[in-house]
Amino acid sequence: MRNSEIAAYFNELADLLEIQGANPFRIRAYRNGARTLESTKVELTRMVEEDFDLTELPGIGDDLAEKIVAIVQTGELKQLTELREKVPTGVVDMLRIPGIGPKKVHTFYYELKIDTLEHLKQAAEAGELAKIKGFGKKTEQAIIEGIDSLDLTNLRFYLAEAKTYADEICDDLRKLKSVKQAEVAGSCRRRKETVGDLDLLVTSSDSGEAMDALANHSLVTKVLARGDTKQRVRLTNGIELDLRVVPDESYGAALLYFTGSKEHNIVLRRRAQDRDLKLNEYGLFQGDKLVAGKTEEEVYKTLDLVWVPPELRENWLEFGFEEAGQMPELVELEDIKGDLHMHTTASDGTASIEEMAEAAKKQGLKYIAITDHSKRVTMANGLDGKRLLKHWEEIDRVNEATKGIDILKGIECDILEDGTLDLEDDVLKEGDWVIAVLHYGLKQPRKQIMKRLMTAIQNPYVHMIGHPTGRLILKRPGADIDMDEFLQAAADHGTLVEINAHFSRLDLNEVHAAAAKEKGIPIVINTDAHSPEGFNVRQYGIYQARRAGLTKDDIANTRTWAQMKKLMK
DNA sequence: GCCGTTTTCGGCCCGACTGTTTTCAGTCG
User: Fold this and answer.
1) Amino acid A146 CA to nucleotide B16 C1' distance, rounded Å
2) If you measure CA to C1', which residue is closest to nucleotide B29?
3) I want to staple A7 with a disulfide (CB 3.0 to 4.6 A). Which of A38, A42, A339, A550 is the partner?
């Protein structure tokens, strides 16, 4: 069972208790506990197995610890089962309507006996709700529209998509006369894999101008709310964006506040309290006196901390780095010297070897490996041994004729469902760079998956395991891998591992990448480009590595090819 | 329900916006 699943039990429990009108602090305790579990990077199942004292986790006391053990061991939680019987699912669904929270749902269910979304909508349409004290026409309208658009909300978006929209709007707001500073904040600035909504921060002498410009922006379809300092809009792709306008002297504090994460900020706020200070989005205050706030650095410094790169602000690694006095210099896009995973027209790419090499050269790369698919991937016109050897001859010819970049003979070789490799060893050994990957049979049981990975890792000609879990973000989970065993084997046999930079893969993820670093495994960041434009996703791989706290040294392809070879078997 | 060398009881991060209000509750991030 995944940690997020266990957290979901507590969140559901909190929802149900909230509708019932239970003690709000008790509810918050469950939510805090759930948040802790979601951000706990070690598997709880394992912690329970190993009898780890769960109350050492923040926000987990005797009661929640006991409940976690029960969930792990029995797959259910008695209290939750009981509550579910008392509150129908239709009532819980009402919480998903924007602007509707537990108090209103409580009224709907306990006073009006409404227990499905459908009935709620009918009641709103019939004007039944406006008869209750505290409710009016607007609330009814919000409910009708909210229920209609329920399927559209709660969506998450790829970082790549969200960031493109946010950057364009941010750049346009920066051009306004009254705008001094503008920055994208929130999970987008932290470079999370997916983004739920966007946060944009602006300092301006005239908040009206910025808000008007946003309201009239070509990417905005609707203004959802507007006040003096805050405006919420919906963009053409459905994502919602919050604009906040703050005074210039509060810029740093506001950027910190709106970048989050919530967990990171809570630590900062507690730290402020310990020093008899108060931290909010307007600054760090001693009583009413502003003591810091213009820049993020200033706020951190006043709290006796060094500045934390946004990618690390998850209350996971960063405060450990602070304590050790070693905030790492995270890897940057410019550090990358080579790209070792890409396709050409020989399989399912859209460009020739020459075109890929030219595009790579323009990006400042010194070497690339052409790694087309092997024959198992028939859909992509994968190569058999014979075609591959000819393809490699062609690569050698192009390499001879091309100046300024080295083109290596590579292959993305499938690890077949039965655990063998898609190509023979005496073919693989002729190449410069062999990637082994899982594409098929991802749903096999852990034991079988591990057997396949072990074969590949132990093969003397396999240099790297590509996109190890095979997950596709927002689409499908990856294979069930014992990550610890996998990484240990990779370390033992000198097989490198990949962070695949495509925004729908980002595989390894930050937790696995940090674990790989722990074991001293060099990580390779590759684009898996299928066209020259495909190189543009490299930044997302870099972000993922940064979120894992990785430096230039941890990434193999920040080295020259000659240096990199020394890391390989 | 959690937490703590100020506390084992009495607190719990904090501010903005909306809608329904004549001073505030509910919701959200």
Assistant:
1) 21
2) A258
3) A38
Which residue's C-alpha is at the least distance from the C1' of B20? A134
Task: Using a 7 Å cut-off to protein CB atoms, list the covered nucleotides of chain B.
Answer: 1-3, 11-21, 25-29
Residue A496 and residue A449 share a domain: yes
Residue nearest to nucleotide B28 (CA to C1'): A99
Here the CATH number for the domain that contains residue A310 is: 3.30.210.10
C-alpha separations of A118 from A94, A147, A153 in Å: 10, 8, 18
A101 CA → B29 C1’, Å: 14
A7 CA → B9 C1’, Å: 29
Given A216, A245, A274, the domain boundary residue is: A245
Q: Which of A376, A341, A384 is nearest to A502 (CA)?
A: A341
Note whether A505 and A299 are within 8 A (CB).
no
Q: Which nucleotide is nearest to A107 (CA to C1')?
A: B26
- DSSP code string of A94-144: GGGSTT--HHHHHIIIIIT---SHHHHHHHHHTT-GGGSTT--HHHHHHHH
Q: Would you call the peptide bond into A13 cis, given omega within 30 degrees of 0 as the criterion? A: no
Q: Which domain-ending residue is among A323, A348, A373?
A: A323
CATH code, domain with A523:
3.20.20.140
- Domain ranges, residue A96: 3-153
Position A525 pLDDT exceeds 70: yes
Domain of A194, CATH number, reads 3.30.460.10
* pTM of the complete model: 0.85
Residue A549: pLDDT band (50, 70, 90) is very high
Residue A361 in tokens: 């050269």
Number of separate domains in chain A: 4
Q: Are residues A148 and A165 in the same domain?
A: no
Nearest residue (CA) to C1' of B6 = A274
Which nucleotide comes closest to A103 if you measure CA to C1'? B26
On the question of pLDDT at A151 being above 70, the answer is no
First vs last C-alpha separation in chain A: 36
Residue A153 scores a pLDDT above 70: no
In a domain, A29, yes or no: yes
- Pick out the nucleotide with least CA–C1' distance to A104: B26
Of A19-28, A217-226, A382-391, A466-475, which has the strongest mean pLDDT? Answer: A382-391
